[in-house]
Amino acid sequence: MNSRIRKLLPNFLLTALGGAIMALGIALFFEPKNIVPGGLTGVAMMLNSLFPVLPVGMTVMVLNVPLFIVGWRRLGGMFVAYSLTGTASLSLFIDVFARLPVPECQPLAAVMLGGALVGAGIGLVFSRGGSTGGSDLMARLLKAVFPSARMGALMLSVDGAVVFASMFVFGGGELYAALDLAFYAIAGLFVSSQLADLILYGTNVQWTAHIISDDWTAVSAALQNELGRGVTLLKGEGGYSGAAREVILCAVGRSQLATMKAVVKETDPHAFIIVNKAYEVLGEGFRAYDKNSI
Fold first, then answer.
1. Between β-strands 244-252 and 232-237, what pairing exists: parallel, antiparallel or unpaired?
2. 138 with 52: CB under 8 angstroms?
3. pLDDT tens digits for 215-226?
4. SS3 string of the chain?
5. Is-contact 64 135, C-beta < 8 A?
6. Distance from C-alpha of 95 to C-alpha of 97, rounded to nearest angstrom
7. pLDDT (tens digit, 9 = 90+) per residue, 105-131?
8. Which pairs with CB-CB distance under 8 Å and at least 24 residues apart come from 61-67?
9. 211 CB neighbour count, 10 Å cutoff
10. Which residues contact 27 (CB under 8 A, 6 or more apart)?
11. How far does Cα 133 stand from its chain's mean position?
12. CA-CA to 102 of 20 to 30 Å: which in 124, 215, 259, 273?
């Protein structure tokens, strides 16, 4: 087997697995309760309700064709290859799993279980550099335009329009029934987006601190000696006094946050500290860069 194929095969297999996991959540928990998972899968569910002759899985595949054309131009051939794998797996297994017995559970339980499966599948597919079409592909395209935005948040915003439309399709003309379905759909999207972010970004959230201190040399030394973290000095200026100030920039892990604040305050009780959450820090002492990461 060609070495390049051997290297890429695990990514294709994991992408297909992610699509299958998503399909399991949709077919067994979302679709039976008319809870749309958003994106083109939600659109396919609505079309199936209006025109039962259209299978959900196959409709998902057809609806994704225009997105793949745009993705090929904007995101490259390898991304589209992974995405075709994920979407084909999702489409196939939605129709396959639809033949399985539906678990008996309350809508809220369906939301939690289905959302967890969908989010796990999305995170797995995204972590391999692919997509399963629909809202996650649209979110990936938006990510290219807004690189600072988080995937889960982008997907949540894209899916809102689909949830709104589902109120009219599945609500049966009853306001409370429509609002009920919308609530469950939004809850499912929230669960799936949170789990997708958890898989993509992990639980080890990093923190960055900007520290302003008159005794910046001692604070810098203390941070390096006590925490083993490097610091960067930024040039600042007092807005009122106009005096030049050194601003210390330091990145630390979750377990070091409390220690960092204690070290700074013990060294200079009058130091001013601004702490920000950083979902990803790349470089020495933190994560290495992965070109497929998002």
1. antiparallel
2. no
3. 888 999 988 888
4. CCHHHHHHHHHHHHHHHHHHHHHHHHHHHHHHHCCCCCHHHHHHHHHHHHCCCCCHHHHHHHHCHHHHHHHHHHHCHHHHHHHHHHHHHHHHHHHHHCCCCCCCCCHHHHHHHHHHHHHHHHHHHHHCCCCCCHHHHHHHHHHHHCCCCCHHHHHHHHHHHHHHHHHHHHCCCCHHHHHHHHHHHHHHHHHHHHHHHHHHHCCCCEEEEEEECCCHHHHHHHHHHHHCCCCEEEEEECCCCCCEEEEEEEEECHHHHHHHHHHHHHHCCCCEEEEEEECCCECCCCECCCCCCC
5. no
6. 6
7. 898 999 999 999 999 998 888 877 777
8. 61/87, 61/88, 61/91, 61/133, 63/133, 63/134, 64/40, 64/133, 64/134, 64/137, 67/40, 67/133, 67/134, 67/137, 67/138, 67/141
9. 24
10. 93, 94, 96, 97, 98, 100
11. 14
12. 124
pTM of the predicted model, to two decimals? 0.70
Q: What is the residue whose two structure tokens read 């609806």?
A: 63
Which candidate, 186, 168, 187, places its Cα nearest to that of 178? 168
Q: Does residue 280 register a pLDDT over 90?
A: no
Q: Which residue has the tokens 């994704």?
A: 64
Residue 6 tokens, joined: 């051997």
